[in-house]
Amino acid sequence: MKRIALVLALGLLSLGAKDAPKAPPKAPDPVCTDDSSWTDPGAPFRIFGNTWYVGSCGVSAILITSKAGHVLIDVPMDQNVPMIEANIQRAGFKLKDIKYILFSHSHFDHIGGVARMARDTGATVVGRGSDADAVERGKGGRDDPQFYSSGPFPAHQPVQRLDQGLVLLGSLALTPVPTTGHTPGSTSWTWRSCEKKRCVQIVYADSLTAISDDDYKFSDEAANPGYAQAFRDSVARIGKLDCDLLITPHPSASAMWERFGPTATRSPIDPTACHALSLRTGKLLEARLAKEAAGIKP
Known about the structure:
The chain is built from eight helices and twelve strands. By secondary structure, the chain is of the alpha/beta class. The protein has a single domain (34-293), classed as 4-Layer Sandwich (Metallo-beta-lactamase, Chain A).
């Protein structure tokens, strides 16, 4: 009798399992393109070794990991923070292990979420020059070429100044590269990342575009002494870096979606990429300065 009851129970369980609704199929990860918006969600992915992309399709957030803790570069826009945090966790890392938050430049599309992320992680925010001041105020000063056209963002205090030297965390060593131009405290970052027996030098090159509000002239030596030459020097500096793998705050600036993701058609590694970026942006800068000299509005 017990055997019959057991067989009957197993039959009912089997019937129930057959009739139970199946879980809906998992939605595919979004495919990022150069036309993606700053808020279009992107899936996290490994760039190389201990370096991960955790941003949206349109603006980058870069996580560099180590046993001693992690470093996050750029937290674009406050409304993107939940997505970035979810991407970090989906990649297998804990928010509380982020020890430093760095940034490229102080415009809301790259540091608008810094205050919230710092609060959620307890990480130390590190910045350079007047861009560090801007993060503490929540708005850049008139030395920012886009002062009148770039919106405010949530402020965060304090910002630890790093005008020289490295950001060190366990085995991580990140080198700041001053790239004054897009903003006065604009900073690129470079570090070494290894995967199995192969190591590459990664460069996170900040924006090198000469964009401004209507009242700003890069070549106005009276108002902005030395700025045009500092911008030229920054462009040249990027071109001379040891650079195996280039990434940028706006993925489209370095053709990231041609090199990463399901539609990739090129290798992520290209030792000529920084030099090519320098040549391209240098020509655009000179064209902008020529327009200013001719009195033509850009």
